[in-house]
Amino acid sequence: MPMSVAVLSLPQLRQRLNLLLVLGASLTLSVVLITFRVFLTHKISFVFLLWNLFLALIPFGLSTMLGLSAGRLRARVLLPVGAAWLLFFPNAPYILTDLFHLEPRVGVPYWYDLALILSCAWNGLMLAYASLTDMQQLVARRLGAGAGWAFATVALLLSSFGIYLGRFLRFNSWDILTNPVTLFYDIVSRLLHPAAHRGTWGVTLLYGVFLLLGYATVRLLGRLGEERGEA
Fold this sequence. Notes:
It comes from Hymenobacter swuensis DY53. The chain is mainly alpha-helical.
C-alpha cells in the first residue's frame, strides 16, 4: 500500500506557509546581522551563532515532517524521529544563553551586538515553540489535551536540563553517541546527589518555568487570534 500523507486544509496550509515565511524572514535578519558584522570587523566573533541556528532548525524540521505524515508512515517513524527530536530540541532554546557572550567590543556598537544576539535568541525560542506545538498536537490527538500539555511541560523541563548540560558542562547532542559514558555519569551523579548540584536544578527549574510560561503565552495568544478571526 502507498504511504499516506496528511492533506492540510487550505487555512492550515496558509497558516503553515505564513509561519515559514515569517520564520524565514527572521532567520534572514539574523544571518544578515552576523554577515555584516564580519564584513565590518573582519572577525568571526559571532559566526558560531549560524551553527546554533542550524541546530535549532533540526527539531523544527523533524516535527514538521511528523506533522505532515500520516497513517503507516507516521507509525513507522514516530518513535525514531520523536527520539531524535527530543535529543535536538534543547538546541533551540539553548540560544537564549548566548546572551552570556554579550560584552562591549571595539569596533562594533554595543547595541548592535545586543540586537544581533537577541535576534538569534528570538529565532531559537520561536523555532522551539513552533516545533513543540507540532509535537504537542500529535500527542493530544492520540491521548488527549491533558496528555499533550503534560508532554509539553516535560519536554521543556528536559530541554532546560539539556541547556545546563550544554552551557555549563559543554556537552553536545551528539555526545550521546561519541561520549556516552561521561554524559551518563554526569547525569546520574546529579540525579543521585541533587543537593551537591544545586546549580543544575536551579537552572533546570528556573529556565523550565520561564520557557513553559512563554510557551503557554504564545499558545494562548494564538488561540485568541483564532477566536477573534472567527467572530
